[in-house]
Amino acid sequence: MGASLIRPEATGYGCVYFAAEMLSTKGEDLKGKVCLVSGSGNVAQHTVEKLIELGAKVVTMSDSSGYIYDEAGVDAKKLAFVKRLKNVMRGRIREYAEEYKEAVYTEADPTKDHNPIWAHKADCAFPCATENEINGKDAQNMIDNGVQLVCEGANMPSTLEAIDIFLDNKILYAPGKAANAGGVAVSGLEMSQNSMRLNWPREEVDYRLRNIMKNIHQICLETAEDYGQAGNYLVGANIAGFVKVVDAMIDQGLV
Predict the structure, then answer these.
(1) The whole model's pTM is what?
(2) Whether pLDDT at 144 is above 90
(3) Which of 57, 62, 68 is nearest to 34 (CA)?
(4) Domains of the chain (ranges plus CATH)?
C-alpha cells in the first residue's frame, strides 16, 4: 500500500549506475567527467542528482523550449532550483539562466538539422528527454567533441543512424532497454515488498537497484562476447532479452 522508496528516482539512478559499470571496464569512474544531460523531468533530474553524487560535472539540461549550458556545472543547489521550477512552478528551463547568470540559454530551433545541446565538449552524454532526439549529425558532433560514453535514460532517444555512428566509433553505448531498466526493476522490488508486507529503507532499495543494474550490465557484456560482438551493448541487450523470453516460453510449453 505504501509503494517503494526510490521508485521515482530509479530510472535516473539506474542509468547512472549502468554508466558507472561501463566505465569500470576501462578502469575509469564518473568522478570529474563532464556530462551532457537532456531533459529536465523526472529521469533527467535524478540522473543529474546521481551524477553529482558520484562526482561528475553536469553542464546541460533542457526542455522542449530550449536548453541551458552551465560551464560551472549544475550543483545540488541549482538542481534543487530545477526541481522546484519543474515540479512545483511548472516553469521553463530558460528561467534557470535568469536565476544563474553564468548559464547560457539557447532556444530550440526545429529548423536546424542538429540539436546544439550535443555539440559541447564533454566526456559522457545522457539523453533523458524524448525519442529520436539524437540524429546522425548530433552523434557525429558528440564524437568530434570527445564524448566516449552515451547512456540512454529516455526510450529510444538515438536514431538508427546515430547508433551506427556510436558503434562505428567504438564508444561505450548503452541502449535504453538496458540502461533505463532501473524503473521497472524497482517496480519489481516494490511488488516483493508488497508480497512480504515489508517496507525497505531507502538505502536497501538503492543497494538492490545498483546490484540489479550491475547484473544487467554483466549480462549484456557477456552475451555480446558470447556472440562475437565483444563490447557491443546493443547486441548484448537485444540477444539477452530475446533469449530470456524464448527460454520462458519453452519452459511454459508455449513453443
Answers:
(1) 0.96
(2) yes
(3) 57
(4) 10-179 (3.40.50.720)
